[in-house]
Amino acid sequence: MNCFVIMPFSADFDDVYSTIKTAVQRAISAKESRCFRLDEARPAGRITERLLKELQSASFCVADLTGNRPNVMWEVGYAMALCKPIIIVTQKLEELPFDIRDMQSLQYDRNHLSSSLAEPLHRMVIDTISAQSSYAQRADNQNEFVGKLLLEMNDLKNMVAQAVHSWGSNERVSADEGSRHELITNLEGAWISAESGSHLYAKVVDNDLIAPYCYCGNNELTGVYFGWRKVGGFWFARFQWIGNELSGFAFLKQESFNNLKGAWWLEVELQQSYDAPPAKSGVPTSWDRVKNIEFPLWASRFLEDVRSEGLSSRLARGL
């Protein structure tokens, strides 16, 4: 969980920032969390681009609006547009613009930072995190419900499509293809293998689910899953390593909106029939959906290559 601090970059505010950072870090105990201000690091590149990226990745913001400085107000406006929770602090509440006064705000005394800023801000951060967790849980439950409902609706569509078989092959193919597209779209997103820690990023491209992955990690392109289609109660998909002859296939059953379970086999073990998983046991695998994670550069680049030149051409040129 990241807290982005929006405030003037001035030596006059260094002790205020130190107090804010201490209060936030006390409330955020996770090792991978951080509280930071943009000027703490100065890497090469455009400052504005880094500012936008940090605001986008922030879980919530603390903004000191003392003096209503233009750059601070702009950053607050951008954070509001991103729907980021913002805790407003200021030395003078009466100076806040009218359209910000209804936001949760804290007035602090410049000469008593511990009692007027550190302690109340610590409690507000804890309340903010609790509210976010509660909202996220409700959202997860809603997504799970919607996912199950979509699966049931698509199963019903398949039943209807089979029932109207006598209407003609063209109508049947259209119904089946539409159902497949809706189902396969539900698989878009980021996934992680429970067994190997492999990361997979799935996106529909040209009506196929293209899913580049990193085997046993999340730092480079290893292979790709493609050719997805429904086979009974399973998803069948092929996989091919990039720049390597290793290939195979998998049968995966969607246990829930956020979980796929099944097994994979190497291509040499593949028989000609894809109507069901092979009798010979494959390597068990389980994929869990990962929420609120951006596609890494290696996955985004591969998907863009496939979109522009096609999967076959992209596989042909390897890494």
Helical fraction: 25-40%
**Spatial order of the strands in the main sheet?**
6-7-8-9-10-11-12-13
User: What's the overall geometry?
Assistant: elongated
| CATH-defined fold name of the largest domain | Rossmann fold
Secondary structure category: alpha/beta
Task: List low-pLDDT spans.
Answer: 163-175
Mean pLDDT: 83
N-to-C series of helices and strands: EHEHEHEEHHEEEEEEEEHH
Largest sheet entry: 8 strands, antiparallel, barrel
Class of the largest domain in CATH?
A: Alpha Beta
Tell me the span between the first and last alpha carbons. 34 Å
- How many DSSP H or I helices? 7
Could you describe the 3D structure shown?
This protein has 319 residues and is of the alpha/beta class. Helix content is 39%, strand content 26%. The protein contains seven helices and 13 strands. An eight-stranded antiparallel β-barrel has the order 6-7-8-9-10-11-12-13. Strands 2-1-3-4-5 form a five-stranded parallel β-sheet, with helices on both faces. Helix 4 (113-163) runs antiparallel to helix 5. The longest helix is centred in the middle third of the chain and has 51 residues, at 113-163. The two termini are 34 Å apart.
List the helices and strands and how they pair.
Elements: E1 2-6, H1 14-27, E2 34-36, H2 47-57, E3 60-64, H3 70-81, E4 86-90, E5 105-107, H4 113-163, H5 169-185, E6 189-193, E7 199-205, E8 208-214, E9 223-231, E10 234-241, E11 247-256, E12 259-266, E13 283-290, H6 297-309, H7 311-316
Helix pairs in contact: 1-4, 4-5
